[in-house]
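User: quick one, sequence for these tokens?
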């Protein structure tokens, strides 16, 4: 690239699918790339996928899934965000912000007032910098063959619209977590 040409800014694209091979391309082939296997939870695959490629390589991903939820006594839906990943060798370049922004832009067209994600405690500060807020209540989630269980990871929420009410009260996800 000539010296006077600025590098091309990475662009987010909507991915037609997201496979284990795609995840391995981003995070490698480790046993527990998201660090959540110890929770013993079963997770839902996402339906909509957004990614960033650098030099043809998939280096970032975020997935979305519309889910039923109860917030207090109100049954509604949220946009579940999950599978957020950035390749270790390109972290610190704003790719998480970029891929999440594209996913949330799409989520805003789907109707729910809030997006919800679950994260390990070390990632709470990152998501807060990206505009997410930790819920100060436990969240119940479905699991195969059991009564609802309390989500052991930190639940983060962000409004999808300026008029979204504050999310408060007990929260129950009427599905597996995303």
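Assistant:
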């Amino acid at each position: 690239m000539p010296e006077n040409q600025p590098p091309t800014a990475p662009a987010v694209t909507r991915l037609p699918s997201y496979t284990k091979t795609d995840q391995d391309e981003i995070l490698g082939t480790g046993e527990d790339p998201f660090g959540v296997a110890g929770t013993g939870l079963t997770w839902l695959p996402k339906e909509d996928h957004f990614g960033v490629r650098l030099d043809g390589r998939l280096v970032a991903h975020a997935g979305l899934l519309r889910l039923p939820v109860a917030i207090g006594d109100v049954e509604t839906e949220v946009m579940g965000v999950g599978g957020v990943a950035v390749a270790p060798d390109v972290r610190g370049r704003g790719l998480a912000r970029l891929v999440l922004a594209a996913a949330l832009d799409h989520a805003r067209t789907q109707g729910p007032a809030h997006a919800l994600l679950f994260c390990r405690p070390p990632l709470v500060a990152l998501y807060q910098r990206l505009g997410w807020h930790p819920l100060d209540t436990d969240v119940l989630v479905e699991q195969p063959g059991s009564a609802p269980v309390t989500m052991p990871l930190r639940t983060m929420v962000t409004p999808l619209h300026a008029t979204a009410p504050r999310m408060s009260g007990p929260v129950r996800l009427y599905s597996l977590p995303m």
